[in-house]
Structures are given as structure tokens and as C-alpha cells.
Amino acid sequence: EEDSTNSFICVLKKMKEVRRMEKVVEETEEAFAERMETLAEQWRDLHARRAQLKAHVLTSGSTVKENERLRSQALKKAKEEKEENSKKESELLRARRELEALRKKHQKLSKKLLKYSPFKRYLEDVVENSQFRDIDDIISYYKALLRTRKDLLQSQWWHRQLMEQGKGLQQQLRAQKEAEMLQCRNDLVQLKASFDQAQNDIRQW
């Protein structure tokens, strides 16, 4: 039963992790597609601007100084755009690596999940033949049972602590009462001895 329970818990965790990974992969793919579209637009803008710069260099400026200034500006702009493109390519490469890592992790989890397919079918049968609407309801109910069990164990522990403290106080009180009774007996013995001595003194008088 303990192995079945551990397998049951493990398959719940694995299924939940697979859902989360599928969602992350989907979101990452969407973000990757958006990045690709943005980079494509930037490349088109870059080529258009380069074409404009070339046309401007060829058609404008009548002096060598002006042409040199335009050339310097064009080179500076091209350098900045090259650095920007390099940065974008690095980001794209990193995004591809992250996506590939997520895909590998998803495949690994999917393979692990295959080992627990009998438990998955069991959970589906439980959902079909119970009041639960889906497997997430079973997980929530199981977690609630765990919390209840934890609270009960905590309550039992506090109850034992209070009982032990009560026993200790009871023993302490009993010891105090016994000491008081012993003191009273000693005082009574002393009073009796004093009373006997007083009676002897009276007879002598």
C-alpha cells in the first residue's frame, strides 16, 4: 500500500509538472515566434535604411568633405546596426537553446510519465466513478487530507504535551502537600512535647 501511495503521489506530481512544462514550452514557442518576427522586421528596416543611405551618398553632396561626412555617418550607423544585430542574434541563439532545453526536459518527463500510465488510467477511472470532476480535484482533495492529518498530529502532540505538563504539576503539588503535612506532623510532635513538659511543670508547682 505504501508503494502504491508513493507511486500515486509521484504520478500526480509528474502529471502536474508535465502540464506546467507544456505550458512553458508553448509560451516559449510563442515568444520565440514573436522574436523571429521582430528580427525579420528589423532586418527589413536595416536593408531599407542601407539602401536609403547609399542612394543619399550617391545623389547628395557636391564636395569631398560632405561625401566624407556622409560616409562617416553611414559607417557609424552601420556599425551601430551591426552591433545591434549581433545582440539580437545572441538573444535569438539563447532563446533557441532555452527552447531546446525545455523540449528535452518535456520529452524526459513524458518518458517518465509513461511508467505511471496504469496509475493515470486508475485516476481517470476514479474521476469517472466518483464525485470528482477532474484529476486536479483529486490532487486538491489529497492535499487537504494531508493538511488535516498534519493538523491532527499537531493537535495530538500538543495534547500529550499538556498531559505531561499536567502530570508534572500534579506531582509537584503532591510533593508540596506531603512536605506541608510532614511539617505539620513535626510541629504537632513539638507542641505535644511542650504540652507534656508544661503539665509536668504544673504538677511540680
UniProtKB/TrEMBL annotation:
GO BP of this protein: spermatid development
UniProt entry keywords in alphabetical sequence: Coiled coil
Region of interest (Disordered), ranges: 68-90
Top-level taxon of origin: Eukaryota
GO cellular component entries: cytoskeleton
Domain (DUF4200): residue spans on this chain: 12-128
Coiled-coil residue spans: 159-201
Protein name (database record): CCD42 protein
Originating species: Cardinalis cardinalis
